[in-house]
Amino acid sequence: MNIFSKFWSWYNSHKTFNTGLAAGLFLLQLVHLYWLPTHVVFWKLVGVSLFDVTGVWQFLMIIVDYTEIPAIILTSIVYINEFREDRKMKSLLYLLFLNSQWLHIFWITDEFVMTQFTGAALVVMPVWLSWLAIGIDYLELPVIYDTIKKFLVSFAAPKKESTIS
Description:
- The chain has 165 residues and is mainly alpha-helical.
- It has one domain.
- The protein is built from ten helices and no strands.
- Helix 2 (15-27) runs antiparallel to helix 10 and helix 5 (68-86) runs antiparallel to helix 6 (89-99).
- The longest helix is centred in the middle third of the chain and has 19 residues, at 68-86.
């Protein structure tokens, strides 16, 4: 048995836990997805924030934002495994939605979006890139929903005997 077979065997024997961990990390992103329209977009459209976080709350928001990285990795494994087992095109679509977040994380950051919208940008780029970044963030929603659903359904699924300790 090669290392990949061992990994997938272990992964599937702990599928409920692995899916639950991915879903839990992704649930935290709902805080960020709430902050985006109530602070960033509302600020751009009317010049007022409905959810301005400062101090300890800002620090917590930053921590939540960084949990997106392990959430993307763990949730990608959920959909890679699903595609590996069933060749579902939905798995590939959700992998695309999910991994488009890397573009947002490493290229179009929230700071860039805020800088663009408030007009204090050092490098002038088209504002449509900021709107694109926000749109990319919301591609998480169907993945979050589906991952939570998979986690809840896994409790009803019959348990397989583990062949690896």
